[in-house]
């Protein structure tokens, strides 16, 4: 009996973990791209977050979400802060999903032209 309730407990635990993950994945890269354009991130960081003269590189391999979100909310240096009234948490999560969806650069060793 005891081991059965342990198994049930584990099943419930893993079910709730799956739900948590589904919540975290609910952010949409497609909506994020629209928000990234709408909020003008592209003007300084480039359409693909590749960075530009004005802004740092954001993708591929974006910095952790907490770091990015803290920065975006509180920066007071060269980048203007985007407070929640202007850029909602949902939009920011979507923007992050968009940045995460940008494909990584290929390994230079895998490009024949670079390896004669
Ligand atoms: C007016 C130009 C400009 C716009 C618009 C802009 N940024 Fe930036 N951003 C910058 C600059 C410049 C930096 C580097 C600032 C610094 O180091 O103080 C930066 C830095 C960042 C960083 C930190 C990068 C790192 O690796 O530390 C993040 C994240 C970021 N921007 C995200 C965004 C997002 C998301 C948007 C749109 C909501 C946005 N930025 C819009 C200019 C801009």
Overall pLDDT: 87
Q: Distance between termini?
A: 67 Å
Content-based structural category: mainly alpha
State which percent range the strand residues make up.
under 5%
CATH class of the domain at 28-105: Mainly Alpha
The CATH topology assignment of the domain at 28-105 is Cytochrome Bc1 Complex, Chain D, domain 2
Radius of gyration: 20 Å
Q: Which CATH architecture of the domain at 28-105 would you pick?
A: Orthogonal Bundle
Q: What is the number of strand segments? A: 0
Tally of separate helices: 5
Which geometry do the CA atoms define? flat
Give the biggest beta sheet.
none
What report would you give on this structure?
With 116 residues, this protein is an all-alpha fold. The chain has a domain at 28-105: Cytochrome Bc1 Complex, Chain D, domain 2 (Orthogonal Bundle), CATH 1.10.760. 53% of the residues lie in helices and 0% in strands. Helix 2 (29-38) crosses helix 5 (89-101). The protein is flat and about 65 Å long. It starts with a helix and ends in a 15-residue tail after the last helix. The relative contact order is 0.15. Heme C is lined by residues 39-41, 43-45, 54-56, 58, 63, 68, 71-72, 75, 77-79, 82, 87, 95.
């Amino acid at each position: 009996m005891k081991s059965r309730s342990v198994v049930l407990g584990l099943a419930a635990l893993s079910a709730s973990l799956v739900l948590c993950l589904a919540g975290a994945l609910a952010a949409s890269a497609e909506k994020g791209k629209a928000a990234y354009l709408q909020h003008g991130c592209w003007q300084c960081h480039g359409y693909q977050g590749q960075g530009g003269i004005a802004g740092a590189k954001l993708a591929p391999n974006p910095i952790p979400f907490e770091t990015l979100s803290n920065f975006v909310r509180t920066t007071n240096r060269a980048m203007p802060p985007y407070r929640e009234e202007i850029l909602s948490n949902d939009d920011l999560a979507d923007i992050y999903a968009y940045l995460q969806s940008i494909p990584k650069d290929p390994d230079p060793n895998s490009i024949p032209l670079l390896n004669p």
